[in-house]
Amino acid sequence: MRDTTPQPIHLADYQPPPFLVDHVALTFRLAPSATRVIAHIRFRPNPSATPGHDLRLDGEGLTLISASLNGAPITAHPDATGLTIPAQDLPEGGFDWHCEVEIAPEGNTALEGLYMSRGMYCTQCEAEGFRKITFYPDRPDVMASFEVRIESDLPVLLSNGNPAATGQGWAEWHDPHPKPAYLFALVAGDLVATSDRFTTMEGRDIALNIWVRKGDEDKTAYAMDALKRSMLWDEQVYGRAYDLDVFNIVAVDDFNMGAMENKGLNIFNSRYVLASPQTATDNDYASIERIIAHEYFHNWTGNRITCRDWFQLSLKEGLTVFRDQQFMGDMRSHAVKRIEDVLTLRARQFREDDGPLAHPVRPESYVEINNFYTATVYEKGAELIRMLHLLVGEDRYRAALALYFDRHDGQACTIEDWIAVFEEAAGRDLSQFKRWYEQAGTPRVDVSDAWQEGTYTLTLRQHTPPSPGQPLKEPLVIPVAMGLLGADGRELLPTQVLELDSPEQSFSFTDLPERPVASLLRGFSAPVALNQRLRSEDRALMLAYDTDPYNRFESGRALARDILHAMVLEGATPGPDYLQALRVMVTDDALDPAFRALALHIPGQDDLASSLHAAGHVPDPDAIQAARTTALRLIAEDLRPDLLRVYDEMQTPGPYSPDAKDAGRRALRVQAVSLLARADEGAKAAELFARADNMTEQLGAWGALLGIGKGQAEGAQFYRQWANDRLVVDKWFSAQVMYAAPATAAALAQELTQHPDFDWKNPNRFRSVIGALGANPAGFHAKDGAGYRLVADWLIRLDGVNPQAAARVSTLFETWRRYDTTRQTLMRAALNRIMAQDNLSRDMGEMVGRMLG
Ligand code: 0A1
Ligand code: ZN
């Protein structure tokens, strides 16, 4: 058991920093096991704090060599989390702090602070990693300019800002823009750059570099292209230009998250930079485009305007996700992008919001902030901005953002600051809207309707279920975009936005020629669970005729969900109406192939477990898996000729291009071949695997074979072909686990952990085997508990070396209360076993503690 329980930090306890920092000068003498960090920091008392405070500096795992104040040596006594200089020892007014510490990047397996990845030095300081580099007030509301000198024999030495001077074995960088310490970065390695230039709208010439390991330089073109498009888009759409002379991106193989927006020096997990047609799928290309844009957009929303404290994290993350979603819609297809985003939101955020880890977009307390980089803070945070955009309209949204940039540039801000610019720009009170930031849980909206003599009345009721620490909820402002359809599919009422702001409200529509079908929540206008009872004929009507592409998709999905529920609960089979509706979608050449591909995806296992649970049933993972398998086979048999035709028609002539048009065609083709595999024993899939010249089709075809229990020979060939490409080997591991038969999935994953390429300390590789069980729910939830035991064993092991990565994977267990008592008992035992470990990390202790409740 942990001997000291870490104490939570509360938003309500926020106090301004007693001292501010004007300038930081750092020298790094790099050495793997004994790096020296020499810091000169200029402090001054904060005029808006009470005077007379001690100076408290954060610091973890630092060996203090020497320290001085205004040049006079002092003896400081660090404790486990930092050091304190008593107020009486501090010079009056401002003062210079100097200190030298020693750290060991080589032994840093947590990948936080300064660490090494295959011979290269790199940093990760968000959220609180800078305190592992030197003693500092490591909080985002302390912003300073930085000068950095790096001494090392490695050829490439990078830090934030602009290059200042360089010589044999050293380089200096100056970052004039005041920044919080979490945006500090340093990289040193034997790297090569792909370089380009960008001229800003102000006419400034910017050098762009993407730094990778030797041998990877032929895989950077797409990331560079995405970067230039992001820079142009932020100028054109938000009026924001880049503000340094150089913009550097570095790809590293060992990285806990996706990427990091350090000022002028973005550091990326290499999987979100490196791509070639042979090694990256279309989805990989799209992720690279999105994440390059996301990190670049942070330069304004995050870096120039940052967060006052970590409770405000969604201020930068929700807004930056919303911006990357807008960008991707502009680059590709708004309709398809919206559907994909909603699918992600429901799969990840609704799951979080409905379980023991539910928390508000702005949490009120945390033990370990790294545990709050969640789908709620990111994706639900973006939904809140989307709702604001809808409620105030495009023009006022633009005015609010102009005001935000103008008023808060260079500041560390709060959600209150954000809401205030909207209140001013839109002339509207948003105090009720603000509850969205404060209340956890997914609101339910129940719909009933009535028809009388030309008047149609809709009644909407909202209710947000209790969540941890929040038993009672207040009503929210819910924008419900809607339209009305006539029986022949004609639109009787085009899209308008109803504002539901009370527990129950009715809306009447008069002078209608016939009883309409209400198409509600168009574009998924609010992150709520809509409970609208519709006859399947009405769903079929919307599927065929709705003018809103999201609701067309959604009606097809709701039909599929109803059928799968009936299959799981009553052993029903899909009726001809559903199959006919699918056929119409799949063969409609007027529709975007990417949209048709999405429409062919039936709801996944976890999605069904969640919807069955919401409908009051205890989900049975085996029954769900079996029902999906049957449904897929019946669809494949029924639609076989159509799928064959689509498969042929969707060939992409000419050389591979990752653009949305070709990617959409390939998505439909791969979707067709994986369905066909269930009717032709994998004949077409084997043929495609043999012929594929790109990773999308190669992996898609192999997955299709694995999905029907075949693909062994192809798997061996795949490994032989790609054994030297780490990112493709990750795919090789994860595909096997994802598609493994439920009864043997845990055993297979266990066997793969014995493979010589299973480097469990590399986060991508760990996730590709252990994390991949999350994509095989029937396997993870195998009733003998083997999946739970395996995951718990590995979480315990990883927690000892990389708590942050381990804590993230622990969310595999977050839905444990949905299941039957046998499974609940097994999962609770696994969680209790983790909890009982000696030296459990703060990260894991908090996550497991919250899950156990
Ligand atoms: N701010 C980054 C993601 C990120 C967050 C936390 C990290 O360590 C705890 C690392 C990266 C982004 O939103 O892209
Ligand atoms: Zn971000």
Automatic annotation (TrEMBL):
Reactions the enzyme catalyzes: Release of an N-terminal amino acid, Xaa-|-Yaa- from a peptide, amide or arylamide. Xaa is preferably Ala, but may be most amino acids including Pro (slow action). When a terminal hydrophobic residue is followed by a prolyl residue, the two may be released as an intact Xaa-Pro dipeptide
Entry keyword annotation includes Zinc: yes
BP-aspect Gene Ontology terms: proteolysis
Domain Peptidase M1 membrane alanine aminopeptidase: 222-436
InterPro entries: Aminopeptidase_N-like_N (IPR045357), Aminopeptidase_N-like_N_sf (IPR042097), PepN_Ig-like_sf (IPR038438), Peptidase_M1 (IPR001930), Peptidase_M1_dom (IPR014782), Peptidase_M1_pepN (IPR012779), Peptidase_M1_pepN_C (IPR024601), Peptidase_M1_pepN_C_sf (IPR037144)
Cofactor needs: Zn(2+)
Keyword presence, Hydrolase: yes
Entries under Pfam families matching the protein: DUF3458, DUF3458_C, Peptidase_M1, Peptidase_M1_N
Keywords of this entry: Aminopeptidase, Hydrolase, Metal-binding, Metalloprotease, Protease, Zinc
Domain Aminopeptidase N-like N-terminal: 93-183
EC number(s) recorded for this UniProt protein: 3.4.11.2
Domain of life: Bacteria
Ranges of residues in domain Peptidase M1 alanyl aminopeptidase C-terminal: 537-852
GO molecular function annotations of the record: alanyl aminopeptidase activity; metallopeptidase activity; zinc ion binding
NCBIfam families, sorted: pepN_proteo
UniProt similarity note: Belongs to the peptidase M1 family.
Protein name: Aminopeptidase N
